[in-house]
Design goal:
With 637 residues, the chain is an alpha+beta fold. It has eleven helices and 36 strands. This is Aminopeptidase N.
């Protein structure tokens, strides 16, 4: 029986280790995909020359063949002047050639410059507030090095896809790509060889045989959309449709998948429906329910949340959950600057964790949070609200450790601090705010909704966890008093000097020798703060943050008791192992042995050890202290 239990425990631990590794790989793949076209970040800032007009409608009439790296077409833009205008500027790479610009059928003069601008001279001054339109005809080979427009193959069949976040839209069509304006309404017409299926945002309206071997497919999107979320794909797709939503807000989930993996993809995509139901229950109706949701299979790792159709390299549950979450956080409400990118990625990453919480249970969610904390605290610094200089770095903007994982865990800490009721109400209010819905938001606007719903002043929290760097390390000293109380002293050090003190509720679990548990959350605001806590038993052991709600690392616990028995925690462990000791115990030497009796590690004067390089298995630890020698054991997973 003991052998069977050991095998089951070992199997579960191996599963947890594999889960954490897969989770880390998923987030990194997502981050890498979403930075694919971000090479342009290094030489791009929001174009002030496009700031004098507001785009209200665009019609893209495109010709594309997935077997040829080339695009041509007409892009018609309806816009309102925000000031008196004599010229209008679009973002467009100079590797694409404009052959004509027309207004009401009349040719306009234009030039393309080295700043990747198309500058058009208007025939007369256009007064502020006046609506006008013009059509740009262009063609050429989009840049190969940007990954914003890609032609490739799958199983010998050609495939074309676009991936424009953050600044790649200009590499395949003339646009206005900032985080100020959204296109209010959109039509996309894709003319491609007749044997292929075309994909874009919104609902397919028609597909017509042109009689020359080509087919034109028309998509209409009637929700505001930023340029970087407009996308096309063309290949020999199979179409698999699911029905989602609840009456009266039902809508299709249209999946464009490779025929060679059709059956496998159908099985993997089945999880989309329960995830959609969960998000609608927690937040609100799917924000584009009058059109569709869906997936288009493409040849890159990770995914990209194009509005109403996520482009995906695979269909793992974590990736499906992340990209679907973006339809609320990123597509309906888009970060108002790239400095606020954590509002997109932190939310989407946290939603994938919420999926684990609801479908896999509390322990799996705790493991997910622990893996995130380990990644975040692998380095001492790093904030989630970027500086202007940070946005010039692709890797920093799309940092999986900070923008994704720390952003997600900051949201988790807000939920822990506020409670579920206030937290979820704040997010619902944020999503329904008429100033933000189908528009842009910045960090202070989220903070305002969190404060309004909770009644809390979150200024210090945001200063510490959003705008500044690092994490806390705690020393918690517990003293059993003789009057039915324990005294708890909390000390804190910070991994980065930008924060003087992390003011966050501290969760502590107090345990008796016979299995009784008493949990408390202490409102820790100052260093060496003392709390007197009534406990109906003598405390034999203490655990800090058992549910992994706090970003912290290296914390230690000491109990003031001469008969306190040392123990190792967490046990099992896969990274940092710590010793819980009485306050008066001093470790002189520690020796680690494997099950063969071989000495594998030895340290002096340490109470915390990095065991990440040890192989999986059982280890025995000899602690040589000022009070004698103690033999302990743990499992490395």
């Amino acid at each position: 029986m003991k052998k069977n239990f050991t095998f089951i425990l070992y199997s579960l631990l191996c599963f947890h280790c594999a889960f954490a590794q897969q989770q880390d790989n998923d987030v990194k793949q997502i981050a890498e995909a979403e930075m694919k076209s971000a090479y342009a970040i290094s030489n791009f800032t929001a174009n002030m020359n496009t700031g004098n007009y507001n785009v209200v409608y665009q019609r893209l009439e495109l010709q594309a063949d997935p077997a040829i790296h080339f695009i041509s077409g007409d892009v018609t833009t309806h816009y309102i002047a925000k000031e008196d205008m004599t010229q209008i500027t679009f973002d467009l790479t100079n590797q694409l050639t404009v052959s004509a610009v027309k207004r009401n059928g009349i040719d306009l003069s234009f030039l393309q410059n080295e700043n990747d601008e198309l500058v058009i001279t208007l025939p007369v001054t256009q007064p502020q507030g006046i609506l006008d339109s013009l059509t740009v005809t262009y063609s050429g080979e989009p840049p190969f090095d940007s990954d914003a427009f890609v032609t490739s193959q799958h199983a010998g069949a050609p495939v074309l896809w676009t991936l424009s976040e953050p600044y790649g839209a200009k590499d395949w069509w003339p646009c206005k790509q900032d985080l100020i304006d959204k296109v209010d309404k959109l039509d996309v017409y894709i003319t491609a060889p007749g044997e292929y299926i075309s994909v874009s945002n919104g609902l397919e309206q028609s597909h017509n045989d042109n009689g020359d071997g080509t087919k034109t497919t028309h998509f209409k999107h009637n929700y505001p959309i930023p340029a970087y979320l407009i996308a096309i794909a063309v290949s020999n797709y199979s179409i698999y449709t699911q029905q989602a939503g609840t009456v009266p807000n039902t809508f299709p989930i249209v999946n464009y998948i490779y025929p060679e993996t059709q059956e496998q993809s159908k099985q993997e995509l089945a999880v989309t429906l329960p995830i959609m139901d969960l998000y609608e229950q927690l937040f609100e109706t799917y924000p584009f329910h009058q059109e569709k949701y869906g997936h288009a299979q493409c040849g890159f790792g990770g995914g990209m949340e194009h509005t109403t159709v996520s482009f995906m390299g695979s269909f793992g549950r974590n990736l499906i959950a992340h990209e679907l979450g973006h339809q609320w956080f990123g597509d309906k409400i888009t970060c108002g600057s790239w400095k606020d990118i954590w509002l997109n990625e932190g939310f989407a990453t946290y939603l994938s964790g919420i999926v684990i919480e609801h479908f896999d249970g509390k322990d799996a969610f705790k493991n997910w949070k622990a893996a995130n904390i380990n990644d975040i605290t692998s380095q001492g610094g790093g904030y989630i609200y970027l500086t202007d200089a940070d946005t010039l770095s692709v890797s920093r903007t799309f940092s999986s450790r900070l923008t994704y994982n720390k952003g997600a865990m900051v949201l988790n800490m807000l939920r822990f601090k506020m409670g579920d009721t206030a937290f979820y109400q704040a997010i619902k209010n944020y999503l329904s705010d008429p100033e933000l819905a189908y528009s842009y938001a910045k960090t202070p606007q989220l903070q305002a909704h969190l404060e309004a719903a909770s009644g809390m002043d979150l200024t210090e929290f945001f200063n510490d966890w959003v705008y500044k760097e690092g994490y806390p390390t705690y020393t918690i000293i517990v003293d059993n008093l003789n009057d039915g109380n324990v005294k708890i002293l909390i000390k804190q050090t910070q991994s980065h000097p930008s924060v003087t003190y992390f003011e966050i509720p501290v969760p502590i679990q107090l345990n008796s020798a016979n299995g009784q548990v008493h949990s408390v959350v202490l409102d820790n605001t100052t260093n060496e703060q003392v709390f007197i806590v009534p406990v109906p038993f003598t405390v034999a052991s203490v655990a800090f943050d058992v549910d992994k709600n706090i970003i912290s690392a290296g914390s230690t616990i000491k109990i003031v008791s001469e008969d306190f028995k040392p123990h190792l925690y967490p046990n099992p462990s896969n990274s940092i192992l710590q010793a819980a000791l009485s306050e008066t115990t001093i470790v002189n030497e520690t020796i680690f042995y494997n099950t063969l009796g071989k000495r594998v590690m030895e340290t002096t004067n340490d109470t915390s050890w990095n065991i990440s390089r040890l192989a999986t298995g059982v280890y025995f630890v000899t602690l040589i202290t000022n009070k004698g020698t103690t033999q302990l054991s743990f499992f490395k997973n």
